Amino acid sequence: MTSTLWILCPVYFDVESFVILKSEIDDELSRLTFDRPPALRVVAIDDTGGQDPELARLQSLPDVTILPTPFNLGHQGALVFGLRRLSAEMQPEDWVVTMDSDGEDQPADLPRLLKELRVRRSARNHVVLAWRRKRIESRAFKFGYFFFKLLFRTLTGTFTRTGNFAAFHGQLSRQVLFHPYFDLSYSSALIALNLPATLVPCDRGRRYAGASKMGVSRLIIHGLRMMMPFVERLTTRALVCFGAVFVIGLVSSAGVLAVELATTWSIPIWMWMSLLSIVTVSLAGLVNLVILFVVFVQFRSLSMRGLHQQTFPLQEAEPALVARRGFRD
């Protein structure tokens, strides 16, 4: 069977950007200096749950498939849904690329990711990731992002400089993508699972059209989800931190009590209250942190479970062409 290059992009009321993206992808693929899979399928994952009538414009584009989600999953959830939904049609030797459709993942970087993937054609679980360098964002966003990276590094012990722009073989999509970590965060799971990876430095591009739908609340939720695949590391570090504070508080309290009983010194009430507060806050923080993450992780996991097994119609641009290549719904 002919191998295929799959390119999956989530689209959320952003058809104009996708049209531009598809044109630039075609230009870049036409200029490749090395062989790639002869068949091409560009999948627009409709993350509106079928609510965007503008998507009808994409049906006339060659090699484009529209895959609707059951409801809004977020850009990373939509990618996982799409990969799992189409995994049965992917062959182990296929090439798979995931990228955003708004232009921030630049098609000009696509040949470099594909070249690295081609070099490692025998390593079916190898992943090529775009390593973010420059971002075109406001100062407020850069300020907040700096502290998020610092927090992420402190809590998980690793850096967050990768996103949805990645390339790998169909084998990974057929097997590894079903790991529960991908129910939580696509980009973080690629790192948390310690897959063999190659990092390709890429700058973030400018949005093609329209405005970003990612508000402050969505950014916060997105940041929390990125930490969830590292829940074991995060919980371990939190246990050590709060446990140390708890022990220090207990030892300090015991020392102060010993001084109170064994000497004539009078311990001020504020010291007793401070020690009691340290012990109480550290214990409460420890318990709440564990409960919060367990609930958050389970909720996210349940929201994705089994979705790819449901039947949602694929809307093909050229049914005759697709049928001739052996693809099936």
Quick description:
The protein is an alpha/beta fold and 329 residues long.
Describe what this molecule looks like in 3D.
The chain folds into 2 domains: 4-218 and 310-325, Spore Coat Polysaccharide Biosynthesis Protein SpsA, Chain A (Alpha-Beta Complex), CATH 3.90.550; 231-303. Helix content is 47%, strand content 14%. The protein is built from 10 helices and 8 strands. Strands 7-5-6-4-1-2-3-8 form an 8-stranded mixed sheet, sandwiched between helices. Helix 8 (231-262) packs antiparallel against helix 9. The chain is elongated and about 90 Å long. The model is unreliable at 317-329 (pLDDT under 50).
List its salient traits:
single chain, 329 residues, alpha/beta, Spore Coat Polysaccharide Biosynthesis Protein SpsA, Chain A, eight-stranded mixed beta sheet, 8 strands, disordered C terminus
Task: Tell the overall outline.
Answer: elongated
Radius of gyration: 24 Å
CATH architecture term of the largest domain:
Alpha-Beta Complex
Q: Mean of residue pLDDT?
A: 80
Unreliable parts: 317-329
Number of helices: 10
Name the helicity range: 40-55%
Strand content: 5-15%
CATH fold field value of the largest domain: Spore Coat Polysaccharide Biosynthesis Protein SpsA, Chain A
Structure summary, number of beta strands: 8
Distance between the termini: 17 Å
Characterize the biggest β-sheet: 8 strands, mixed
Q: Total domains, how many?
A: 2
What order do the SSEs take from the amino end to the carboxyl end, as H and E?
A: EHEEHEHEHEHHEHHHEH
- Structural class by secondary-structure content: alpha/beta
Main sheet: strand order: 7-5-6-4-1-2-3-8
